[in-house]
Design brief:
By secondary structure, the chain is an all-alpha fold. 65% of the residues lie in helices and 0% in strands.
Length: 199
């Protein structure tokens, strides 16, 4: 029995954890099987078990730009009721490359602050040059996010993301100067780091 057949059998296991691990390994070891295995990992993002959803995020993140079809489902998982799943989705999106930038920019406007913060962090992880279009939307977050407990996470994540944009963050200097007065110390810290790109 070939190794590929063994993987195919394991991929049909009734245990979601076995299916996920098998799909990820097969996608890594047998590139021709990647589309089918990535599809199985995407299915794992809807599993009722949060552990399975989190591992699906982790596995998809490790495949990265070779699994762009996972981006829409990973964006949905940013709003997962389990914070560890949401965090894993954000980290995975940060590995997806340029194709993840437009939906992440859109997620900066999400009604929930944690989704906004995770999107900002993912944009920072993607980095330049791919994330360059996010500079103005990140400035908008820094300017418009409420200064309440929920908005603070958006503000510091936006400041941190802008700090990763290098000289492209220069237009944000006035906002970053204002953020130096933010009640949250983490926001002040990242505003100071990003502000070094000013005149």
């Amino acid at each position: 029995m070939s190794v590929l057949v063994v993987f195919s059998v394991l991929a049909l296991s009734s245990c979601a954890r076995v299916r996920l691990g098998t799909a990820w390994t097969a996608a890594k070891v047998f590139p021709p099987s990647r589309p089918r295995m990535v599809s199985a990992l995407i299915d794992g993002l809807d599993d009722p078990d949060p552990y399975v959803r989190r591992r699906a995020c982790d596995y998809l993140g490790s495949i990265g730009p070779r699994a762009p079809e996972a981006i829409p489902k990973l964006i949905e998982r940013l709003d997962d009721h389990d914070m560890f799943v949401a965090l894993s989705a954000g980290l995975a999106l940060g590995e997806m490359g340029p194709e993840a930038v437009p939906p992440l920019i859109e997620s900066l406007q999400h009604e929930y602050a944690n989704v906004c913060a995770l999107a900002a962090q993912a944009l920072r992880d993607i980095g330049l040059p791919a994330a360059a279009p996010a500079v103005t939307p990140l400035m908008n977050v820094l300017a418009q996010a409420k200064r309440d407990a929920m908005g603070i996470s958006c503000r510091w994540a936006a400041a941190k993301a802008l700090a990763g944009m290098g000289p492209l963050a220069k237009p944000a200097v006035p906002l970053l100067m204002d953020a130096l007065k933010d009640p949250e110390s983490v926001t002040r810290q990242w505003a100071a780091i990003a502000g070094q790109f000013g005149p």
